Amino acid sequence: MIRYLLICIWVFMLHKDEVTIPWSDSCKLVWSDFQARPNQDSDAVAITASGITFNYSIKKTGKRIVSYKTHVNAHFYPKKSWFKPSLTDSHILSHEQHHFNITELFARKFRQRVANVEVSQSLIKELDQIHYDINAELSNLQKQYDKETDFSRNFGQQALWQKRIEIELAALESFKSTR
Known about the structure:
The chain is α+β, with helices and mostly antiparallel strands. It has one domain (2-174). Helices cover 39% and strands 22% of the residues. It contains 3 helices and 6 strands; from the N terminus they run ββββββααα. The strands form 2 sheets. A 4-stranded antiparallel beta sheet has the order 1-4-5-2, covered by helices on one side. Strands 3-6 form a two-stranded antiparallel sheet. α1 runs parallel beside α3.
């Protein structure tokens, strides 16, 4: 007898009615996508809430895992993202777009790693470890991006980072998000 086991792991816990914007080449963020109330106590002038959703299904015969499928997607969360209109401009919007692009970069790295996982009885443990590692790496790179660009204020570093992100996305083109 063949049994199916569906396990869902979410980077952000999604509610049924939560609106997200999936990453795509053609969809660029605009300020109206940032719908949360700005935190006036924050030094930040904008916050991009983005993350990776991950789920997988496992096909079993008896207790033996025989195959699996995964879905990995990069999302922007409008209701958790905000900006201070009087302090922002197109340069800062580009900086925020690149935070979202970094999320897509790690969704691609996630898909690449998952593509190399072979079916075994330790499959769930392997997928969970990849999920954990990717999220840690994503968080670290987002922090490094902000630190090195001084939150977009270092125009030279911002330009270098934008090019770096574009190059890395292109290198993983075969793993890009599809709608």
